[in-house]
Amino acid sequence: MTDRKFRFAAMSRRAAVTGAALAAMAALAGCSGSGSGSSTEGDMAIGASEGAKVTVVEYASVTCGVCAAWHDQVWPEFKAKYVETEKVRFVFREFPTPPADVATAGFLVARCAGEGQYFNVIGAIMDSQREWAAGTPPRQSLLRIAQEAGLSQEEFQRCVTDEAAIAA
Predict the structure, then answer these.
(1) CA quadruple 118, 120, 121, 123: dihedral positive or negative?
(2) Domains, the chain
(3) Tell me: the pLDDT tens digits for 88-114?
C-alpha cells in the first residue's frame, strides 16, 4: 500500500465525514452567485446576526445519511465553538434528498414547530434515521417528533399536507 493510500485508510470516519461535508459546502457555496453571506427567502439561521463577518451556509437533507453523521459527530462542537459564541452566522438551506417526500415532510414539521424549535426538530429528524433503518416507518417518527415539539396529530397532518408550503 502506498503512503498516500495508507494515510487515507487511517483517516478517522469523523475526519472523512467532516472533509466531505466541507468539500460539499465549498462546492455549493460557489454556486450561489449572490455571495454566500446573502439571505435567501426561507433561510433558517442561528448565531451571529445577518451581515456577520463569517456566514456558513449548509445545504442538507433530513434523509441524508452523511448529513446525519455530520450532525451527530461534528455539529455539537461546531455549534458550541462558533454558533453559540456568535462567531459565525449559520444558515441552513433545505435540500430534499430521496425519499424526497419524507425529507419535505420533515422540513415542513420543523417549520410548523416554529422558528425557535426549528433546529432542534431538524436534529431530532436526522437522529430518527436510525429508527428508520431499524424498521420504524418515517411517518411514525415524524409524528412523534412533531408531538414532542408541541404539535397535535391534526396539526401535523395539516402541516405535512399544506400544498402552498410543499410548493415553497
Answers:
(1) positive
(2) 3-31+42-167 (3.40.30.10)
(3) 999 999 999 999 999 999 999 999 999
